[in-house]
Structure prediction request, 86 residues.
Amino acid sequence: MAKFLGTLLRGMVCLVLLVTLVHAANTGFPEEAYEEIIVAPGDTLWGIVRLHGVKGDPRRTIDEIRRLNGLTDVRLQPGQKLLLPR
Prediction:
């Protein structure tokens, strides 16, 4: 009986994890919270923040843009897509 309950509990935990992962994968970023832009030649994160009128401390906004887009440094490539907080 204890073996059955242990197996049942592990199965339920796996099911909850699977449902959570599927939900997270399908949810993505709320569309209204972010704007997608295409990087132009010569663009910098600082310039993009100023041009797009992102509110708040530019340094914090740049950090958030880097986090949102998985950037490891501040170098950008023309044609690159970036998500910006609104």
In short: Residues 31-85 form a domain with the Membrane-bound Lytic Murein Transglycosylase D; Chain A fold (CATH 3.10.350.10). The mean pLDDT is 82. The first helix runs from residue 2 to 27. The two ends are 55 Å apart (CA to CA).
